[in-house]
Fold:
Amino acid sequence: AVVSTQSTGDDTDLQQRVERQQVLVSGLKEHETLYEHIFVLGEGLVSLCSPTAGVPINEKLESIQEQWENLKMHCVQEQENLKGTVDNMVEIKSKIDFYQEWMDDVTKECGELNSELPEDLGKSDEDAAGTSSRLDKLLSWYHRTKR
Structure:
């Protein structure tokens, strides 16, 4: 979920990481039954072997099981990391968009106030009173829009 319509290199990198993670998760799910089948067959094979002949098979099965569990654990950790990164990116983009909109409003309001100022500003007391009124108007607007 990307807040801003502007895309950056960070967006693309993050999207690629998310896509790779999805491929990994679907691959794990897809191969889960194959892994279980191999493990059941291996245990069956060990039970048919003599105790000494079954040891290397059993060691290999334990190694496969450990690697499988490590891969699943890595997948879960990476998914959590990506979720945190995506959440942070969305929050940052939301703040950037908010402040960009606020800056646009401030720029517009200042431009409108500037166009109302007389060219010979400050040359008379009347101008000073008008300027003070405009500044009060700007401060009032600022306090209303400050979120």
Remarks:
- The radius of gyration is 33 Å.
